Amino acid sequence: MDRRLGRSIWRWLIPGLRVKRWLGLLLAGLFLLSLGASFIYLQVYRAVELPQAVSPVGYIVTLQFIPHIWRGVILGVLGLGVIAIAVFQFSRSILDVVHSPEQGSLIDLLCAYRLESAGPKVVAVGGGTGLSSLLNGMKGRTKDLTAVVTMADDGGSSGKLRRELGIPPPGDLRHCITALADEGSLLKQLFEYRFGGSMGLGGHNFGNLFIVAMSEITGNFERAVAESSKVLAVQGRILPSTLVNVTLSAELAGAAQGAAVVRGESAITDAGGPIERVYLLPESATGYGEAIHAILQAEIIVIGPGSLYTSIMPNLLVREIGEAIRASAALKIYVCNVATQPGETDDYDIGSHIQAIEKHVGAGLVDYVIGNNNLSRPLPATSSSQLVQPTFAAEYADRVILADVVSQENIWRHDPEKLAQIIMTLYEKQAKRA
Predict the structure, then answer these.
(1) Range 258-267 burial, b when 16+ CB lie within 10 A, else e
(2) Per-residue model confidence (pLDDT) at position 300
(3) Would residue 166 be called left, alpha or beta, if left means φ above 0 and alpha means ψ between -120 and 50 degrees?
(4) pLDDT tens for residues 233-286?
(5) What is the pLDDT of residues 129-179, one digit of tens each?
(6) pLDDT tens digits for range 345-367
(7) CB 203 within 8 A of CB 157
(8) How much is the pLDDT for 314?
(9) How far, in Å, CA of 434 to CA of 430, rounded?
(10) What is the architecture of the domain spanning 121-151+241-433?
(11) DSSP 16-48
């Protein structure tokens, strides 16, 4: 018991807990208070003598029979003891309300929060279900997690709200909020609830409507996202890549000879490709300041997984976002999809994905590319997708990491835990080399 108590006491002195600074400030304040009281006490002590014959009790209480220096030592030790007991019992009374013994000791929880689970600063860039899958895996490995999300969505509930109310599309932001919320939360299920029917609320997600309502209340879309995140106790931040009302456009192969130019994210996939290039309108759309700052401060930047042209490119094509990623000193990783997306990346292998990114934003944007090499489970015969083949040009060989990242439940999706583990392994290897 004594050994455990001693260990707990010393653990409070571990660097990084953000406790010692406040303890030091408390002690400094008490010292100043004691110093002031000492000046007053000293004047009284010198002016009033209490001989034993006149007042035996006063003589003993004021320690007249002990030299002055030892009186100070005794009173100081007693004072510190009383303060320690009072602070301990006061804190214990408060913490009993919010902390149960089943959670372990307070110092253990504090160490886990401040040190053991702090993790690197991670920024995930993308949109759709691919980004939310990555966030699900990474949230258990770091407490400093930021999602930078595309604002080009114009389909479904988000598209309707965007057209009717003139607000940024909330759908991809909602996906990220629910991905970073506590597992099993009833509010998490509520945020993903979709109303049925074909009239009025039909087709809308509750979470989308909630963000819109919060935007009206706060008068600010980005603040609405932040407040919505608080409601679900989200671990991390969700930021738009831009607040400009952007439209994603695509030139299909042969567009230079008069083929169609398709505008609108949802229309691009429906057009059936093949896609020659995509671009934003307006092309001068500015990046969201907090997103740029997060990217520049990151230790790991993960691009994808997600739809190559309609979830990933809309972020990279915001000039300031792309420039911030390139300028960042972080470990930069692109996660290639497990399966192709009909109408977007038909017949693409890993090399085709890399070449498409380089064509739009230039070479050297990322340090590594993670691709799936588990092709043992074919997609259903009814699927219009194919597994992305782990093939690429020799020039990419030193940057491509092939591994089994496929989900057992959803064979055309990534497994969040497998993917997160590979990312953290790459980060740890780089940290050791540094």
Answers:
(1) eeeebebbbe
(2) 98
(3) left
(4) 888 999 999 999 999 999 998 655 455 899 999 899 888 778 999 999 999 999
(5) 899 999 999 998 998 999 999 999 988 888 888 988 888 999 999 999 999
(6) 999 999 999 999 999 999 999 99
(7) yes
(8) 96
(9) 6
(10) 3-Layer(aba) Sandwich (3.40)
(11) TSS-HHHHHHHHHHHHHHHHHHHHHHHHHHHH-
Structure tokens at 344: 């977007």
Q: Which amino acid is at 9?
A: I
- Residue ranges of alpha helices (H) inside 234-278 are 265-271
Least confident of 97-101, 210-214, 314-318: 97-101
pTM assigned to the model: 0.74
DSSP 8-state class, residue 288: P
Cα(2)–Cα(267) distance, integer angstroms:
69
Residue-level pLDDT at 333: 98
Residues 292, 148: contact at Cβ < 8 Å? no
What is the signed CA dihedral for 319, 324, 327, 333, rounded to 10 degrees? -100
- Six-digit token string for 134: 């990555």
Residue 247 in tokens: 């439209």
Contact status, residue 405 vs residue 338, Cβ threshold 8 Å: yes
CA 388 to chain centre: 29
Chain length of the chain: 434
Q: Of 341, 267, 265, which Cα lies nearest the Cα of 308?
A: 341
Report domain extents, the chain.
2-111, 121-151+241-433
* CA distance to 237, 238, 295, 298, 342, per residue, from 146 (Å): 5, 6, 9, 9, 29
* Cα-based distances in Å from 6 to 2, 17, 179, 261: 6, 18, 40, 72
What's residue 1's pLDDT? 47
Closest CA to 146 of 176, 188, 114: 176
3-class SS at 104? coil
> Is 287:324 a contact under the CB 8 Å cutoff?
yes
Q: Which amino acid is at 195?
A: F
**HEC readout, 124-177:** EEECHHHHHHHHHHHCCCCCEEEEEECCCCCCHHHHHHHHHHCCCCCHHHHHHH
